[in-house]
Amino acid sequence: MSTNARTASVADIRAAIEDWAGALRRKDAGRVLSHGTQDCVIYSLAPPLKASDADPGGLEQWFSTWKGPLGYQLQDLEISSGGDIAFATALAHLSGEKQDGAKVSLWYRLTLGLERTDKGWKIAHQHESVPFYMDGSFKAAIDLDPTSQVDWNAPSHPPMAGVIAYLNVENADATAKFYGRAFGAREEDRKYAEDGKRLIHCHLTINGGALMLNDPFPEFGFPWKPPEGFVLHLIVDDAHAWWERAVAAGAEATMPLEIAFWGDYYGQLRDPFGITWGIVAPVKKSN
């Protein structure tokens, strides 16, 4: 292919991608799909692992979760073409307001594979991805932007013993603050999502053990669900002191604190976020 022909192809591909991005901003499912091949394969941020873009139903359903037009832009768009095949890479920025009022602002990586057809250049493969943190949390790094830098000299988190509860709560910031008042929680770390409001990670220490929190992210397949089927136990020296502090902070007693049949003090509380806590302590022997 001559230099002039390659330049013309790149210009045509760029125009097709820009039209495709404009259709996404307008939430025009038909126009978006018109830029794909019939057998277009998609590896998107959302489940499943592999999908097809041939059916507009799923795209229309996703568009319906947003209020108004979408913010969608491509940065550092690079295009390589040869013959009837081309590849394009970019950093994509998606923003907008969900129907529930949540604000979304997310950078991710985009790769497009294109084919030249009798109807022009069409997208045959679409791949979206975000990195994840390598600190053992395996949390998606959705708080990054093109200016983010990795501090390779930062110390790694040491291994943590035991099984650590990781709670998806309706308001992680409010939950963490309540646990500070009710259970003496000490906050070790927090990471915000791109919207600057929701927490993708919050690490607390309570009674010497770790507890992790995050907000729901329904746009990524992690909606909030009412907690059920588990109890967080605090095994302490003074059950009455822990109990009274938690109740004073606003926890609801659901099982009175008393001497249980096995000989320890035991009672259960429900916090304002629906989590059940058990307070356990040995009965102190009188001399």
UniProtKB/TrEMBL annotation:
Where is coiled-coil annotated? none
Q: Which organism is it from?
A: Sinorhizobium fredii (strain NBRC 101917 / NGR234)
Query: What are the TM regions of this chain, as residue ranges?
Result: none
**Species lineage, top-down?**
Bacteria, Pseudomonadati, Pseudomonadota, Alphaproteobacteria, Hyphomicrobiales
Q: What name is this protein filed under?
A: Glyoxalase family protein
Return the Pfam families for the record. Answer: Glyoxalase, SnoaL_3
Q: Outline the extent of the VOC domain.
A: 160-282
* Domain of life, source organism: Bacteria
CDD domains the UniProt entry points to: VOC_like (cd07246)
Q: Which SUPFAM superfamilies match?
A: Glyoxalase/Bleomycin resistance protein/Dihydroxybiphenyl dioxygenase, NTF2-like
InterPro entries the record matches: Glyas_Bleomycin-R_OHBP_Dase, Glyas_Fos-R_dOase_dom, NTF2-like_dom_sf, SnoaL-like, VOC_core
